[in-house]
Design goal:
This is Uroporphyrin-III C-methyltransferase / precorrin-2 dehydrogenase / sirohydrochlorin ferrochelatase. InterPro entries: 4pyrrol_Mease, 4pyrrol_Methylase_sf, 4pyrrole_Mease_sub1, 4pyrrole_Mease_sub2, CobA/CysG_C, NAD(P)-bd_dom_sf, Siro_Cobalamin_biosynth, Sirohaem_synth. Belongs to the precorrin methyltransferase family. One of its GO terms (biological process) is methylation. The chain is α/β, with parallel strands linked by helices. It is 38% helix and 19% strand. It has a 5-stranded parallel sheet with strand order 3-2-1-4-5, with helices on both faces. Strands 10-9-11-8-12 form a 5-stranded parallel sheet, with helices on both faces. Strands 13-16-19-17-18 form a 5-stranded mixed sheet, with helices on both faces. A hairpin with a 2-residue loop joins strand 6 and strand 7. Helix 5 packs across helix 6 and helix 6 packs antiparallel against helix 7. The chain binds S-adenosyl-L-homocysteine (SAH). S-adenosyl-L-homocysteine (SAH) binds next to strand 19. S-adenosyl-L-homocysteine binds next to strand 19.
Length: 463
């Protein structure tokens, strides 16, 4: 690119043109579209140019150009159709600081004038760096035909309406609105009712689109964290604030549900492990139905929705109906629990991996790679592991796990009634049964609370 296209601010600035014949007139026809102050300097001036002067479109200095004539000019055109005279006036204008164009002399010009498709304020400039003027004209003709002549009027009125469109969500909804206006409702309004019809058409279109944007419905699949409302993410909090309908798990605490709007519909879709429950397909249907009714649905799940949350089934149901959705992560029980025993999920030199496993799945007790888990230094966070505790303990011992491996059970993580029970694999049962766990509990296999770990280390050292 030897020429860089820009749009120069010329409103109220001087543009000076030397010459009074055909070449001058051709340029003046373009320049008169601008809001610049035009000065024409020439000994012989065509009648049309005089007419334009009489109409107040430009000013004529009826003599050959002299030094001083181009002072403060933004642009200067040499259009005398005489090489010697053009070179002379170009030198003057150049010295006086104007950008200079010599008509039909690309090499000595500092700028060139493109072919222009004018739908002010929409302006399309086409340039070929002088290589193919025919091509430029063909492209111009094509665009002239393709772009509605009302486009400029529409753009001007549209500009005054931009703020009103802020009620639509950013992105696709707004883009759709503007393309429906420029290529549908706008040209139609002009054809039927002229320029005065445009603003009412914009208002009607916006009302319609706001209605459809509202009626589209949306689902946020939100992680509620382990229970403490302060462990909600800001995103989760905002989604709950906006929800029309909240469909929540059994484990979501009342303090978090409190945050929903008073008018919000709150639905308990609680599922009890092994107990009576709402079928997953019923939950999917419930989410979809409320979203199709045009509601902002928050599907609120304990912890992180991506961890043992049956998220994918719900997402698939939502996608089938083309409903927009987003997933908002949360703090999973393992993260909150490990913080509360002062440990890390992974630790250099102890465990370079951690497994999140479930005690049972839809078929019953879940099977795992027990041999791998039984190896020294393994750490696992066991979700839904209360009823399956004896099964897990038996499998691990059977596969050679050290009976002294620490096991920590944390019940009601992050809640006022949190309990931490530190034991070993050998004692895991009956300890868990005796503890009479009534709240949700997570079991760490291979992790002791930090204090207990320090204690055990000291005992070993002094033995
Ligand atoms: N998506 C959730 C897990 C759902 S499975 C998350 O990321 O945490 C349900 C299991 O999560 C429970 O059986 C329990 O093992 C664990 N859990 C969830 N909340 C808990 C809490 N506050 N305290 C202890 N365990 C919890």
């Amino acid at each position: 690119m030897k020429h860089f296209p820009i749009f120069l601010a010329v409103e109220g600035r001087r543009i000076v043109l030397s010459g009074g014949g055909d070449a001058a007139m051709a340029k003046l026809r373009l320049l008169m579209k601008t809001e610049a102050h035009l000065t024409v300097i020439a000994e012989d001036v065509a009648d049309d140019i005089r007419k334009w002067e009489a109409q107040g479109k430009l000013r004529i200095i009826n003599r050959a150009m002299e030094p001083g004539d181009a002072i403060c000019a933004a642009l200067f055109y040499a259009a005398n159709e005489d090489d010697v005279e053009d070179a002379r006036v170009a030198t003057i204008a150049h010295a006086e600081g104007a950008l200079v164009n010599i008509v039909d002399n690309l090499g000595d010009s500092q700028f060139i004038t493109p072919a222009i498709v004018d739908r002010d304020p929409v302006t399309i400039a086409i340039g070929t760096e002088g290589a193919a003027p025919v091509l430029a004209r063909a492209i111009k003709a094509d665009l002239e035909e393709r772009l509605p002549s009302s486009l400029g009027v529409l753009a001007r009125i549209g500009k005054t309406f931009r703020h009103a469109v802020d009620v639509l969500p950013m992105g696709k909804k707004r883009r759709d609105f503007w393309s429906a206006f420029y290529f549908g409702a706008g040209p139609k309004a002009i054809a039927e009712r002229g320029e005065t019809g445009v603003l009412p058409a914009l208002e009607t279109l916006l009302d319609d689109q706001v209605m459809t944007a509202r009626s589209a419905g949306h689902v946020d699949l939100v992680g509620a964290g382990p229970g403490d409302p302060e462990l909600l993410t800001l995103k989760a909090r905002n989604a709950i604030d906006k929800a029309d309908v909240v469909i929540h798990d059994r484990l979501v605490t009342p303090e978090i549900l409190e945050l929903a709007r008073r008018e919000a519909i709150i639905i308990d879709a609680g599922k009890e492990g092994f107990g009576k429950s709402m079928a997953q397909s019923d939950i999917d249907a419930l989410i979809v139905q409320h979203a199709l009714d045009g509601h902002h649905v928050v599907r609120l799940k304990a912890g992180d929705p991506t961890v043992f949350g049956r998220l994918d089934e719900e997402v698939e149901a939502i996608e089938v109906h083309n409903i927009s959705y987003s997933i908002i992560p949360g703090i999973t029980a393992a993260s909150a629990a490990v913080a509360n025993i002062g440990q890390s999920l992974t630790k250099r030199g102890r465990n370079s991996a951690v497994r999140l496993i479930t005690g049972h799945d839809t078929k019953g007790y879940a099977d795992h790679d027990w041999r791998a888990l039984a190896a020294p230094g393994e750490v696992a966070a066991i979700y839904m592991g209360k009823k399956s505790a004896r099964f897990i303990q038996g499998r691990l011992l059977m596969h050679g796990a050290d009976p002294a491996t620490p096991v920590t059970i944390i019940e009601n993580v992050s809640r006022a009634n949190q309990r931490i029970i530190a034991t070993t694999l050998a004692e895991m049962e009956p300890t868990m049964t005796q503890a009479n766990l009534t709240g949700p509990a997570i079991t760490f296999y291979g992790l002791a609370p930090r204090d207990a770990a320090a204690q055990a280390y000291k005992l070993k050292e002094f033995a």
